[in-house]
Design goal:
alpha+beta; two-stranded antiparallel sheet; 4 helices; 4-stranded antiparallel beta sheet
Length: 157
């Protein structure tokens, strides 16, 4: 009888924890290989040569971070963007940059790429809700499509 009660308690705990699963993106980023790994150690110049001009950049205590906005697998230079970047004020943002789907921050330390973080534009928390205008009920906010990251024009060094 004791074994049965213990088994039922274990099953109850397992079933209750099953409702608290992590979102799919968290699972994938925890257990799948790091898509940025082939680029780690590349220089800033190498990255800019194959990824194009970043949307923004900023200095931090350990080096510099380049920020890219992109749609698709990863940042790639385009002729139109490079041409418009040269003719615009360097402090202004390109007007064509409003339809991006993913953002990536490439952090450099000691002149080499140390880490990459990327996320979808408009990311929301997995438990965020909004009111349904018809029913007045709180419903989950739709999650944006997950991002992938690669630098298609960069060869692994």
């Amino acid at each position: 009888m004791r074994v049965t009660k213990a088994l039922l308690a274990i099953l109850a705990v397992g079933a209750s924890l099953g409702g608290c699963q992590a979102p799919r993106q968290t699972f994938e980023r925890t257990f799948l290989p790091d898509p940025a790994k082939p680029y780690i150690g590349m220089t800033k110049e190498q990255i800019i040569a194959c990824a194009g001009t970043p949307y923004n950049s900023y200095n931090n205590a350990n080096g510099e971070t380049l920020v890219y906005h992109y749609s698709g697998a990863g940042p790639i230079p385009t002729a139109d963007k490079q041409k418009s970047d040269q003719s615009q004020n360097p402090l202004s943002k390109p007007k064509t940059d409003k339809n991006w789907k993913c953002g990536a921050s490439l952090a450099f330390e000691d002149g080499k790429l140390a880490r990459v973080t990327f996320a979808p534009n408009g990311v929301v928390g997995p438990y965020d809700t909004k009111k349904n205008p018809k029913t007045g009920e709180n419903v989950p906010v739709p999650q944006p499509d997950p991002c992938t990251f690669s630098l298609p024009n960069c060869g692994a060094h």
